[in-house]
Write a structure and sequence with these properties.
This protein has 299 residues and is of the alpha/beta class. The protein is 30% helix and 21% strand. It has a ten-stranded mixed sheet, with helices on both faces.
Length: 299
């Protein structure tokens, strides 16, 4: 395993991905040419709650199964909508992936409904649902990436580090929910360092049922930076140095934990804030290059 440094108009890219290089860029360019269009199916359900919905963008059909990307929207866990990530899902479908946008139950601090880990249970159930219906959508169940921004990046990271806790659904309970790889963009992947917005901290305290000072172990238990182990899947981490919503130190801490554990990862910092990082020129090609290396959409 070697360290790679590669310039893509970002401040830092650090990878533990032996062999990532020009061949991967070529794979990404090839996959971008595989699908000129994509079809959208909305309002599918993986659970009984109205927020447990899933939308799918499918590329042009082909005989061989394709890899999949499942998107989780951000919003701090009290707001969010899978419709927010449909454009990103479309871009991935046009690059040759079957793309899913999955909703999850949102927490209401005013009523205390949908406490953690409802959101993680839902993210894992969505991955299980995709695997259970892989043949219906031409998906290879062994090639699935979870991708998210902000709290969606937090969820995506967790489904790359944990397997399903809730096995109550007999149809999908026995299926693994751990994905093949993860992309976290501006993810709140270390809740223990605090959030720049007091309002968001209050949401987390309500979501977890305790402040960090009262129960630091509970906050570490939901922070990906503290959950890296020998089973953690490859992760692409992207964060903006001007982010005032989620401290860039959170992603730095996750990258440090991955390096210490010698897990595969790519870490990239960009001159961007919390939201405009999604539209930065390097973000999409970097993501597609990572996905091409991990998922091989050309196969």
């Amino acid at each position: 395993m070697r360290t790679l440094r590669q310039s893509l108009s970002v401040t830092v890219i650090l990878a533990l991905l032996g062999g990532l290089g020009s061949a991967v860029v070529a794979q990404s360019e090839e996959s971008n040419q595989q699908s000129a269009g994509a079809s959208l199916t909305t309002s599918l359900e993986y659970g009984d709650d109205p927020q447990q919905g899933i939308h799918v963008y499918e590329p042009a059909p082909r005989p061989a199964p394709r890899p999949a990307v499942v998107f989780f929207s951000g919003g701090g866990y009290d707001i969010g909508d899978p419709l927010w990530v449909l454009d990103s899902a479309r871009q991935m479908a046009e690059a040759g992936y079957v793309a899913f946008a999955a909703g999850y139950r949102l927490h209401d601090p005013s009523t205390g409904t949908n406490l953690w880990p409802a959101q993680l249970d839902d993210a894992q159930a969505a991955v299980r649902w995709i695997r259970a219906h892989a043949a219906d959508y031409g998906v290879d169940p062994d090639r699935i990436c979870a991708l998210g921004h902000s709290s969606g990046g937090h969820l995506a990271s967790l489904v790359g580090m944990t397997d399903g806790r809730d096995t109550s659904d007999p149809d999908i309970g026995g299926i693994s929910s751990r994905v093949t790889c993860v992309v976290s963009v501006s993810g709140d992947v270390d809740l223990t360092i605090g959030n720049p917005y007091p309002e968001q901290t209050a949401v987390y305290e309500s979501l977890l049922g305790a402040s960090y000072g009262d129960d630091p172990a509970a906050w570490r238990a939901v922070s990906p930076a503290y959950l890296v182990d020998a089973e953690t899947v490859p992760i692409l981490i992207i964060h903006g140095t001007r982010d005032t919503n989620v401290d860039v130190q959170a992603s730095r801490n996750l990258a440090a934990a991955l390096a210490e554990a010698e897990r595969e990862f790519v870490y990239a910092e960009m001159d961007a804030d919390h939201f405009d990082i999604v539209e930065q020129p390097p973000t999409l090609p970097l993501t597609q290059t990572f996905l091409a290396y991990q998922l091989h959409p050309e196969e």
